[in-house]
């Protein structure tokens, strides 16, 4: 292709899309980028951060806007927020690509438990958002015939410690996470860099699903509290109490998602993770994509010590 942008990045102002855009710009130039965000303020900030790139406000559920954003691109990166209607988003993307007359390589972030199918999900997780939605979106894209790479985040983002778990950690020196279980982790900056490499590379002949984490085996949250205590230099206790979690974090989740059931859904999701705890092992796909070792959890904690302490 010639002339305009080659790469469309949804969520370009986020913790994954931002590092992705930076990695593509370093190698291919900012002019290769079309950066989509959800607000005019974020669009303007992207324009300042990436001079020469196209920056636009695009509602991922608006077919006309998505069609315009897809025009002429070779690859599109898709990452969605929690509690998003994943199936509907995939339907809009596919219809927009067809209307735009393009066949982009779809690089999409997934949230799946490996081997899990929609019919095996617990009833509490059978709604149109979350795990089921990710499975349905992947199935739709696979059936479309578009080249596709699914980057399944098999673990938690390390900066969840600065977001979802931040309040009790900062204010009470407490890691408030019910259902103690092993969990793998990934630095979102590594995920963004890996996604950039996938987007810039040749599209796969058939859809592929990659499971990504830092390569470290799962760390229980009680062990994570001990690790935080060592790295932060202050005692951090782990509290395994679903009711306390709902009281402390539920209002924030409702405000973030607009769904008063968000905390209940999250707790059901965590129970499923606990029931599949044996799966949470380090996987080497991320290191292979990066060509280096990914950031490990303990060094990440040390790097962000001041922010974690608040």
Features:
310 residues; alpha/beta; 13 strands; 15% strand; single chain
Put the structure in a nutshell.
With 310 residues, this protein is an alpha/beta fold.
Average pLDDT works out at 94
The helix/strand series, from N terminus to C terminus, equals: EHEHEHEHEHEEHEEEHEEHEHHHHH
- How do the strands line up in the largest sheet? 3-2-1-4-5-6-11
Question: Which structural class is indicated by helix and strand composition?
Answer: alpha/beta
Sheet-strand content, in percent, reads: 15-25%
* Largest sheet descriptor: 7 strands, parallel
| Gross morphology | globular
Radius of gyration: 19 Å
What are the segments in which pLDDT stays under 50 over at least 5 consecutive residues?
Answer: none
How many DSSP E strands?
Answer: 13
Helix content: 40-55%
Distance between the termini: 48 Å
Oligomer: single chain
> Helix segment count?
13
Describe this structure in words.
This protein has 310 residues and is α/β, with parallel strands linked by helices. It contains 13 helices and 13 strands. It has helices at residues 17-28, 40-49, 63-70, 86-100, 130-144, 166-172, 188-200, 221-232, 242-257, 262-275, 285-290, 297-303, 305-309; strands at residues 7-10, 33-37, 54-57, 75-78, 105-110, 148-153, 156-157, 174-176, 182-183, 185-186, 208-212, 219-220, 237-239. The chain has a seven-stranded parallel β-sheet, sandwiched between helices. A two-stranded parallel sheet has the order 7-10. A two-stranded parallel sheet has the order 8-13. The termini are far apart.
